[in-house]
Amino acid sequence: MPSKVLSAACLGLECESVEVEADNSPYGNPGVFIVGLPDKAVDESKSRIRSAIKNSGFDFPRGNVTFNLAPADLRKGGTHYDLPLAVAAMILNQQIKKFDLTTAMFAGELALDGNLRPVPGILSFALFAKKSGINNLFVPQANAREAALINSLNIFGVENLAQLVRHLNEEESITPYANQSIELAEEIIFPMDFKYIRGQESAKRALEITAAGSHNVLMSGPPGSGKTMLAKALPSILPQMALDESLEVTKIYSAAGLLPHDEPLIRLRPCRSPHHTASGVSLVGGGAWPRPGEISLAHRGVLFLDEFLEFPKSVLENLRQPLEDGVIAVSRAAGTLHFPAKFILVAAMNPCPCGFMTDPDKNCTCTANDILRYRKRASGPLLDRIDLHLEVPRIKFDELTAVGASGNDSASVRDRVQAARNIQLERFKNEKIFANSEMSSELTQKYCEIDNSSKELLRTAVEKLHLSPRVYFRILKLARTIADLAESEKINLEHIAEALQYRPKTE
Question: Is it true that the peptide bond before 71 is cis, omega within 30 degrees of 0?
Answer without folding.
Answer: yes
